Amino acid sequence: MTTALVTGATSGLGKEFARQLARERYDLVLVARDEARLHTAAAELSRQHGISAAVLPADLSTTEGRAIVEGRLAGEPVDLLINNAGIGLGKDFRDASPDELQRQLDINVTAVLRLTRAALPAMIERGSGEILNVSSVAGFFPGSPYSASKAWVTSFTEGVAAEVPPGVRITALCPGFVHTEFHQRAGVSISAPAMFWFTPARIVTEGLADLRRGKVVSIPGAHYKTIVALGRLVPHRLVRWLSRRV
């Protein structure tokens, strides 16, 4: 049976990734900070789908937490890595403390870098394996430190994809607005037309499909694809001006 490791697995997109992969009969390794929620999620998935679901409590904002997951990936290789964990701050750069900014960078960037590096050697050696890094449409437009971190995730994924041999696939999933706890946790209130909001199920379904098709950058939704395409055509100075107002 194939095995997938999912970070940020107890809520939002991570929870949906775990649910869909369990339905596909993947054994799971669930990573998050809240050990109680991990055990609840693992027991539910095991009972409903008859798969093995291991829990790996770890805070990816810390060196120690990342080392726990890196060790698991290096010692017991997986077939699929979902780098889903990520945070937003809901603050301007000048209003966030250095520690808050560093924590965001460590979760959104450093963890993706190190877990990808830990998982890849075994995948390359056996000639198969998949990594999906959750990025964001925000990464295509200059703005907050969050946007910058997601721009890095997308660029990093494209760079690694150019290096890996056939049989190993890596995708950056770049959703727009999703009905999860993300904005609430970041302390951000978003008003946008209903057409711009997607369910976690749709995002995960499209992301996994694009990964399996070998698509390096996945942008769910035709209107988001259009926004990103137009953003690449508009002068960068105008994009910055619009981003500041949005």
Strands ordered across the widest β-sheet: 3-2-1-4-5-6-9
Q: What is the total tally of β strands? A: 9
Low-confidence stretches: none
Distance between the termini: 46 Å
Name the beta content range: 15-25%
Name the helicity range. 40-55%
Output mean pLDDT: 90
Please identify which CATH superfamily we are dealing with: NAD(P)-binding Rossmann-like Domain
CATH architecture designation: 3-Layer(aba) Sandwich
Whole-number count of domains:
1
Per the principal axes of the C-alpha atoms, what is the gross shape?
globular
Determine the number of helices (DSSP H or I, runs of at least 4 residues). 9
Content-based structural category:
alpha/beta
Protein name: SDR family NAD(P)-dependent oxidoreductase
Organism: Amycolatopsis pithecellobii
GO molecular function, one term: oxidoreductase activity
Pfam families: adh_short (PF00106)
Q: Can you walk me through this structure?
A:
With 246 residues, the chain is of the alpha/beta class. The protein has a single domain, classed as 3-Layer(aba) Sandwich (Rossmann fold), CATH 3.40.50.720. The chain has helices at 12-23, 35-49, 63-75, 98-126, 145-161, 182-186, 200-213, 222-233, 236-245, and strands spanning 3-7, 27-32, 53-57, 80-83, 129-134, 168-173, 177-178, 197-198, 217-218. The chain has a 7-stranded parallel beta sheet with strand order 3-2-1-4-5-6-9, sandwiched between helices. A two-stranded parallel ribbon has the order 7-8. Helix 1 (12-23) runs parallel beside helix 2, helix 1 packs across helix 7 and helix 3 runs parallel beside helix 4 (98-126). The protein is globular, with a radius of gyration of 17 Å. It starts with a strand and ends with a helix.
